[in-house]
Amino acid sequence: MSDLLMQLPDIMIEPVVRAALLEDLGLAGDITSAAVLDDSQTVRAEFRARQHGVVAGLSVARLTFALFDRDAIFEAAVVDGTQVSPGMLLATVTGRPSSILGGERVALNLMSHLSGIATATAGIVKAVSHTKARVCCTRKTLPGLRALQKYAVRAGGGANHRFRLDDAILIKDNHIALAGGIAAVLQSARKRAGHLVSIELEVDTLAQLEEALHLGVADAYLLDNMTPDQIREAVRMIDGRAIAEASGGITPETAPAIAEAGVDILSVGWLTHTVRALDIGLDIEPL
């Protein structure tokens, strides 16, 4: 899978990496390295995994050191999406001590975070691999990191939901309440939607779903916080006329039963908003 993963171009990554470096360097740079290191020597650092997981963000680490020092040499030993184990070499970077230590924390923060997302995603993908369901992230991303976090989901074998509010029309409970009900909100949405804009409706009950199906407007239905039995009935009612997506309370433990109920998509917000970072270390030695 990893060799088919489309990498994000540097122009999309650079603003995040640059901002992180500027935040870390402050107004005077790395005063510790400047005070105690001989910067005329060349050192080599190794990124190694310290636990089992799926790696993501190698291009972010590469760009971190390239922005800090154009003479630094970064070499990846694996590709994003690779299953890794403790002690496994992920990449090396060679250059001046101040360059490597100056970029170390930013590179590790971003790569560990993205690898954590890829690892969590891979866990749920594996749990439902016997079903047709795809695992998707949501817009519950950290500000400024959406493109990178959604990329990490893909590195873990998942797929992406909307990137932004203008990607598609997703009608939720508050829209329904403010617009005057399901019929009113769906009619308004269809009237305003462009011919390439999909419409998805969130429903909390089978009664809401039945009303919406009678209108035949939505392209997808988001089955929110339903039990597996309710989801199974909802899928039967939809009968292939639209995409069936489940959300709410989806974990590696609950995902199989939900996926087995027949949905097309599992929508999992915590993949990006509360995931645990993968432990990755950077060890440096002089050449």
Automatic annotation (TrEMBL):
Enzyme class: transferase
Record pathway: Cofactor biosynthesis; NAD(+) biosynthesis; nicotinate D-ribonucleotide from quinolinate: step 1/1
GO biological process: NAD+ biosynthetic process; quinolinate catabolic process
Keywords, sorted A to Z: Glycosyltransferase, Pyridine nucleotide biosynthesis, Transferase
Function comment: Involved in the catabolism of quinolinic acid (QA).
Coiled coil: none
GO cellular component: cytoplasm
SUPFAM superfamilies reported in the protein's UniProt record: Nicotinate/Quinolinate PRTase C-terminal domain-like, Nicotinate/Quinolinate PRTase N-terminal domain-like
Oligomer and partners: Hexamer formed by 3 homodimers.
Domain annotation Quinolinate phosphoribosyl transferase C-terminal: ranges: 117-283
Residue span(s) of domain Quinolinate phosphoribosyl transferase N-terminal: 30-115
Family: Belongs to the NadC/ModD family.
EC number per UniProt: 2.4.2.19
Protein name in the entry: Probable nicotinate-nucleotide pyrophosphorylase [carboxylating]
Catalytic activity of the protein: nicotinate beta-D-ribonucleotide + CO2 + diphosphate = quinolinate + 5-phospho-alpha-D-ribose 1-diphosphate + 2 H(+)
